[in-house]
Amino acid sequence: MSSSVEAITVLSSDGDEFKITVSAAKLSKPLNWMLEDVCFSDDCDEVPTIEVNSKTLVKVIEYCEKHAPRANSGASDSDAEELKKWDIEFMKMDVKDILFHILMAANYLHMEGLYDLACQTAADLMKGMTVSQIRKIFHIKNDFSSEEQEQLRRQHPGCSFD
Amino acid sequence: MVSTVSEPNNPFLPGDVIVNILKRLPVKSLMRFQCVCKDWKNLIKSSSFIQDHLHHSSHQNPSLFLRWHNSIRMQFGLLDGDCDKEVLEVENAPLTNLFFARIVGSSNGLLCVEASENDTYPFPLLLWNPVIREVRKVRRRTIIDFELDDLLGFGFSQVDNDYKIVRIKVPEYQFVANPMEVYSLNSGSWKVIEFDNLEGVAIRSHRNVTVNGVMFWIGGKQGLDDDYSLILSFDLSKEVWTVIPMPDLNYYDKIRLIEYENRLVVLAGFFGEEKSYLIHLWVVEEDRCSSGERWIWTKIFTSSPFPPKLDPVTIWRNEIVFCPFYQSDYGVSTPILYTLNLITNEFKRFPIRSSQNDRINMKIFSYVESLVSFDNINIEDVAS
Question: Which residue range or ranges hold the SKP1 component POZ domain (chain A) (predicted)?
Fold first, then answer.
């Protein structure tokens, strides 16, 4: 890999161009493969497409750039603490409305840290939700017959289908 | 909060992503979410998900379970790391208003409890999962008669994927009566087990701990009342005893056998200078190859000195937990839980708040919330 390459350009699924630094791209195996393809290819004009929409990709790249220095060099405990705080803020302030997209992207890009973080954020959000709120965000239909609901209510007094 | 996850644009999540989210939820939420749809209900009840969830919560969210009684009734509480260090009383516990309750052991979210509403002996032996509110009675029809001073232990064997209750007779803590009995949840019955390698040794305390399917008891040489130089280990799968020498401890005050990071540790308390107290932790490794010592002990921790009135009971997230005791704060007597961090050697102090104030005889157990249920286990319903 040529050391002169510091950043590569990728396309989102909406066709927007994004720059990602080489060290940040290393957080994701698929991104890393793309990067090697681009750097070793004679024809460097081809811009790889990542099947993630622009709004989500911005956040994924932001996460990668923030985590890259630690992932590549290893860091002190105080850095780890700081990064943990940053993660919490990152999830709190910015990504709630695209949380499920982030989940899908982290899964698709094999980014373990972001995937775990997003799963935990989703779980924390779900803790206090009602059953019907859960159905709404996961696009699930209530498929229990009224007899089955009655039976479940008997087994678990106080359980609610709403 | 809720509306911030915008609904119409949410993508459909694949099954493995949903599992990864759900395994992070508390049992209470999962019990509610069984009503979402049939797929979720079947998932939450499946044994693979129950294992996933248990694995995650054992690593991420170990808790403490407390039992105490006041003048009227038994109470049970949970201390969860996420909470503001407050003991939450177990909601709608089916085991209250009891005449007697003793927790035999705690494993994978199940508690084995000897409990009764009256003074008729033998007290029923119960298995209880407090968060899913299931209670079952263990058959007490046994070959050897039950006695009040029987030693009981409860643990899980990964090899057999089975929970077992061990019952040993140790008259006056002087010798281990042969045979003993072991109850298997999978078979739903007691089995008599004979052994021949415990001659001349005795179990010295009812306290025991199970680590990786092996139950450990503090032992000593028969006839020497204050000898605590041995550990008796019982493999729950092979159902055989092994005698292990204690590490070389001089002038200790108390010893405890505790599980820490999936290993057995010996916790020894010593009096230090100026009425202070110190704790040492030891781990053992078995050397099967060399011709020298078979059991090699290593000291892994020495605490800084602290007041001797603290009684260590367990280890919870790198913290030694001490038995709570009452302290007067501005004239109000509050039970305080102290912990000592194994990495930083720092003390933390947690007041325990709950509805009842006249608590006595608090006991603490390591605990992990789980969905482990008795659905497929062959035991009697508590109503029978």
Answer: 8-67
